Amino acid sequence: MNKQFYLKKSFLIVVSCFAALNILFASTTPRWRVAFQGSKDVDYYKSIAVIDDDTIYVVSSSSKVMKTTDGGVTWATTNLPAWSGQPRAICFPSAGVGYVAGDLTIAKTTDYGETWTAIAYTPATNITSAFATSENTCYFGGVAKVYTTTDGGLTFSTSTTVGAGPSIVFVTPNGTVYRAGGSGGIYKSTDGAATFSANINTKTTIIKNNIPSIYFSDNNTGYAIGLQTTSPYINSIIKTNDGGTTWTNYPLGSTSTVSSKGPNAVSIPATGAGYVVGTISNAATDIYIRKTLDAGLTFAIDTIGAKQTDYYGVAVTPRGDVYVAGNGNILTRKVVEVTTQINNNDMGSVTGAGAYYAGETVVLTATPNQGYEFEKWTSNSTDISTEPTYSFTATSVLHAIDAVFKVSIATSADFQKENSIISVIGKNIQFPERTGQFEIYDTTGRLIISGKTGEGTIQINNNGIYIMKVETAQGSRVQKVIIK
Length: 484
Fold this sequence. Notes:
Elements: E1 2-5, E2 15-17, E3 33-37, E4 45-50, E5 56-60, E6 64-68, E7 76-79, E8 87-91, E9 98-102, E10 106-109, E11 117-118, E12 129-132, E13 138-141, E14 146-149, E15 157-158, E16 168-171, E17 177-180, E18 186-189, E19 213-216, E20 222-227, E21 234-240, E22 248-255, E23 263-267, E24 274-278, E25 289-292, E26 300-301, E27 311-316, E28 322-326, E29 329-333, E30 335-342, E31 348-351, E32 354-357, E33 361-368, E34 372-379, E35 382-385, E36 389-393, E37 398-407, E38 423-425, E39 428-430, E40 436-441, E41 447-452, E42 457-460, E43 464-472, E44 475-483
Parallel strand pairs: 1-42, 30-37
Antiparallel strand pairs: 2-30, 3-29, 4-5, 5-6, 6-7, 8-9, 9-10, 10-11, 12-13, 13-14, 14-15, 16-17, 17-18, 19-20, 20-21, 21-22, 23-24, 24-25, 25-26, 27-28, 28-29, 30-32, 31-33, 33-36, 34-35, 34-37, 38-39, 39-42, 40-41, 40-43, 43-44
C-alpha cells in the first residue's frame, strides 16, 4: 500500500497553558502607579465604586466625582451640587445610575455620572456609607441609623436606633444588611434595614473602637477592621465564615501610636486576594497598605511605588486590578496576564503562566516530553531565551510568550543496529517490517503525519528536512531525512 502525503500551507495550532495564580514578592519594581494626582490636604479621595474592569468612580471631599473608562489611564471630573459639608460615599448599582452621600446631603446621577442632582431629602445625621442593591434601592449609613430608599430617592425610611457612632453598611447577595459602627458594634438585619439584631461581634475585646469598614465576599464570609481602645492600639481584622455568628481575629501586623490612626477600608473578594488600607501612624516611615493572598489569614506590607499619604478607600475589580483612594491621589495596581503558547502540545508542557500584579516576578518553566527537547522562548517572533527556565518582571497588561520544542536528534550510530529504521528513496519513505508507530515532523516541530509502521511506503512531495520518529518493541528511534 502506498500512502501519499501532500504538504499544504497550514497554520500553527497553539495551545494556551494557564497555571494557578502565582504572586511573588522578590521584585523591587514599582507595583503601584499614581492613576490620578490631585492636591494633597485639599482632595481627600474617600470612596470608590467599580462598574467593571475599566470603569471606576471615585468621590472627593472637594465635591468632585472622578471617572475613568479606560482602567485609570485618563480621568474625567464632574462637580457635585453644593454641599454643606463634604461627600463621603459613592455607589453605583448599574452603569448609568449612582448615588453620592455625605454631610446631610444625597445626590444622584442617571446619566453615567455626567450630571448630579441633589435629592430632595435631608437625612437627620451625616452619612458615612452607601450601598445600593438596585437602581431604586439604596442603604445609607448615618449616625446610629440606616436610611433606606426603595424608589430611587423619592421617599426614605429610617431604621430603629442601632448601636452608636457612624454606620458602615454592607448588603450580601441574599439581602442581609450588615451595619458596623461605634464601640466595635456589628449588627444584622433581615428585614431590609427596618430593624437590627443585637451586637453580633464576638471579638469586642479585640476591636473596641469604631469599625470603619466591613466587607462580605459572599453570604457567609465577611471581614471587619478596627483597633483596640488602649495603647499600643493593635490593628486587627476579624473574619466570619458563618454570616456573623462567630468571628476570628487575625492581626494586621501593625500598631498605631494614637487611636485615631489605623485601618480605614477593606476589600477581600472571593478569590482571597485583597487589601486593607488606612491612615499612617508614623508619617515619616509608614504607608498603610496591607495585602492578603489567603483570604485574610495573613497580611504583608505592599507599598512599593505608593505615595506617602493616608488612604481611605480600596476596591478590587473583577479582573483583580486594585484601586486605592487617599489624600491627594488615587493609586492603581494592575493585573498582568501572562500567557504561554506551545508549538506542539505533544512535545512538552509549560508552567508559570497566569495572573500577576505589575512589578512582580514571573518564572516560566518548559519541560519537554520524552523524545523531545526545549529549543527557545519567543515573544512577538523575537527570540528571548534558550534556557528552559525563564524569569522576567511583569510590566505590561499582557505578556504573550511562546515555547518552542523540537524532536531530539539521535546520533547516526543509533541507527546502525540490525538495519536502518528508515530507508529513503527519492520522495518515498520505507519503514521496516516491524509493528510500531511512526511520526513525521517538519523542522518547526509541526506534526506532518503519523500512523503504523509496516503498512507500506509514505510519499512526501515537498522537498525539505524532516524528522522521523519510530516506536517499536525494540525501543524508540529518531532519524533526520532529506527529501529532494
